[in-house]
Amino acid sequence: MSQDTTVVTSAPATPPEATRVCIVAITRHGVTQARTLTSRWPEELPPPTLCTSAKFAAEWASLPQPQRIYEGALRDEIAPLFAHYDQIVFFVSLGAVVRLIAPHLVSKDVDPGIIVVDDAGQYVIPVLSGHVGGANAWSERVADLLGAAPVLTTASDVGRTIPVDILGRHLGWRVEAPKINITRVSAHVVNGEPIAVVQEAGSPHWWTRPTPLPANIERLTRFEDVDPARHAAVLWITHRPVNNPLWQQWAERLVVYRPPQEEPAA
Fold this sequence. Notes:
- The chain has seven helices and 13 strands.
- The chain folds into two domains: 16-153, Rossmann fold (3-Layer(aba) Sandwich); 159-258, Udp-n-acetylmuramoylalanyl-d-glutamate--2,6- Diaminopimelate Ligase, Chain: A, domain 1.
- It is of the alpha/beta class.
């Protein structure tokens, strides 16, 4: 791989039991919905921090969850929220949240998951860091607790296909590829083009959806069985080194996954 190529190496997912969640509400209806959410919060998960203005502090005074009560404007709270939490659930309008978070965005690799819930508690929308940041999964969790509908717009989730950027992350796999490859290969996958998944290492239990693997995905056991004329892209799960000529041959069509090395037998 050329020296000026940026390689993405994904970090392991933060497990739910270690995720720092903050729930933000700024209206009376939002505060009520947030209270409902916290009352149904699973005991096995860390309690979320509740964030609201001093105007509504009395509404939460009796709650056992940690609280962040602020004076002044919510916009002044966004930077510390970004710094201290992995998931931020806003009972605030979508447009307002977009404007509030815009100055603080860095990249999907570091930004927290941002989730918006309407004041009636009907819809839960992952706004930012849906895959890498985990907002899609947390939106489904929050929606289940509220009896609401999750509104997912990520193409691979809507199409029930492979999420190229986080495949195997729950198994500790690392993604190794230039950023452009992840973008291009993701497009091939969601567009239903022929995709080869070559697995030479790691757990076979990487497909976690309840639906069957899409018909455009072909599972192979050796990279040598890939057909460059037929397969639009390759997802290669391997411990083998990938040399520069191979990256060039499969320019923008190859993503490599690195499972943890197995412990040697005793």
